Amino acid sequence: MFNTVTIIGTGLIGGSMAIALREKKLAKKIIGCGNDEESLQQALSLGLIDEILTLEEGVAQADFIYIAIPVHAAVHVTAKVLDLVNDAQIVADAGSTKEKLCRAIADHSKRKNFVASHPMWGTEHSGPAAAVSGAFTGRACVICEPERTGENHLLQTESLYNQLGMHIVNMNAHDHDIHAAYVSHISHITSFALANTVLEKEREREAIFELAGGGFESTVRLAKSNPDMWAPIFLQNKENVLDVLNEHIHQLINFKTAIEEENNTALSALMQNANRIKRILPS
Amino acid sequence: MFNTVTIIGTGLIGGSMAIALREKKLAKKIIGCGNDEESLQQALSLGLIDEILTLEEGVAQADFIYIAIPVHAAVHVTAKVLDLVNDAQIVADAGSTKEKLCRAIADHSKRKNFVASHPMWGTEHSGPAAAVSGAFTGRACVICEPERTGENHLLQTESLYNQLGMHIVNMNAHDHDIHAAYVSHISHITSFALANTVLEKEREREAIFELAGGGFESTVRLAKSNPDMWAPIFLQNKENVLDVLNEHIHQLINFKTAIEEENNTALSALMQNANRIKRILPS
Asked: Looking at the predicted complex, does its ipTM rise above 0.90?
């Protein structure tokens, strides 16, 4: 239980964290900070946070500071927050990329106050109104470079995530970003690109809506995601994202070739290979 | 209410139709036919069907014959069934492609007995054990070339689908196949290709499983689908599928270029365009 938690960025993730902290009685007071005044006011009126303060004031009052803002901003804000904290305060982030951030604060005198974390949860919605109860339950939370965090800071943060129903997976920041490109970032790109494909080709909106039961909804769901959040992720994780995107285009060309050549054997083999995902992600 | 319904192909769709017919009390007796003996035996032991008969026997006894088999087989089986029926019997299919089938039986003397239909429902699972209750409720059912079906045959089939909770959408077979390529077939290809991408790049299965909360599950779900069903669909709808697949590869290359050039404006614009899907498919 913390006396005061300050959440920087009160959108989908920060807001859902606020709900979870209240429900599990893990914070007596929750302060909201950030650049997005509208988001903060909405979080306040929704009761997600108790008070809006400046970054300096919010950090000064907090035992635990949670940074849940787009990843390009997180690089600067994390360093700024670490400049402000005393030895006991804990700072953690929720960003979808880890390598640039970890490198940026690697030599900070307060590096041990920081927990580089990525709770593996999200939806296609954004903003405080999209925050939900039970968001993190049953999911993994990646913590990178745990050896660089102070023992007490790490234990308290792990305990917090555990109490939200998450289990901790440790990884170095480099590996995290590779895995995140494979299992999250590429899914968002394919979904955005699929929406653009259908919007380009299918001029009859009514037909999309009527026929969407054929599988389209689930594959296109992520295309509703917030560009302000995702553009910085793709750019920060450029190398890994391009690597997996090139492979994906290559795999699509395999399908294209098999269909062009009416090669039923090759086409079936591609799908049988894809079916192996069942063994990894059972229903 | 039909006295006897014969379902040819007792897999996901045929089996779910059987469950719906029983629950809505729309058939006194349900007969199963088909080439897949294992599927038929399973459907019988699950209570989906009352009896297994040969195609000839099954058709002879039925008021209503429902064809729910892979689309390449449906072309031949539908013609064969129409050879066997009298003027009163109704034949309908559930295939995901319509143009080849409609063309193949266009000049059949029993064309008016046939309803070319496509209930817009499915899951990634297959076989009788995957059949579920309430499968078709709230979904659209496309009926192609209704003017080529006899009035009574059409009315009874529409009434059946309506009683299962579906609403009818009329389309010509050519347009159906174009729309199906956009809103269903391409989603399956991207999902299969995404699974292959991740299986190729991500050698650590544990990482896929642990981190899948990041959006991967929903986009890869359809990659579990049955190749025996989907290969014939892609090949029968080759032209439309290739058209939309080429556009999709083009859209992915747009993302690739924007990321390579670190062009935040272009990248955001691509995603903002994709966000328009929200207006067509609200949550």
From this structure: yes
> How far apart are the CA of A115 and the nearest CA of chain B, in angstroms?
18
Q: Quote the percentage of chain A above a pLDDT of 90.
A: 89
- Which stretches does DSSP call E strand in B61-217? 64-67, 90-93, 114-119, 140-144, 167-171
Say whether residue B196 is in contact with chain A using an 8 A CB cutoff. yes
Which residues is A2 bridged to in the sheet? A27
Please check whether residue B161 touches A, CB under 8 A.
no
pTM above 0.95, yes or no: no
**A222–B219 CB contact, under 8 Å:** yes
Task: Report the DSSP beta bridge partners of residue B169.
Answer: B142
Residue A104 CB burial class (10 angstroms; 0-12, 13-18, ≥19)? middle
Three-state SS string over B181-233 comes to HHHHHHHHHHHHHHHHHHHHHCCCHHHHHHHHHHCHHHHHHHHHCCHHHHHHH
**pLDDT single digits (tens) A154-188:** 999 999 999 999 999 999 999 999 999 998 999 99
Shortest distance, CA A57 to any CA of chain B (angstroms)? 32
